[in-house]
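Give me the fold.
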Amino acid sequence: MSGVTALTLTLLPLFVLGVLALVLYWAFGNDRRGVPDHTGHDFGLLVQVAATPTVEAADVLAARLRRAGIRVTVVRRGGAHLLLVFPADAPDAKLLLS
């Protein structure tokens, strides 16, 4: 009887660890998303609607968009300040800024 108990006490934790490993692989191991771009050229969901040479000009345009209810982000890349909005707001933002 003690042989069966010792075998059970050895195999049960291994079985539990195996099941846990399979569950974790199923939950986190099949990630097919692309690798994020850390070079500064990819802004994820946001699209560029304008570029200005100065931060003051970018702030004026961003304030205009915010008054119209469009969420805007201003980022600096190189020597330009870019105004970024969500794709659904891009046509309205471009129309408002033109």
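The radius of gyration is 27 Å.
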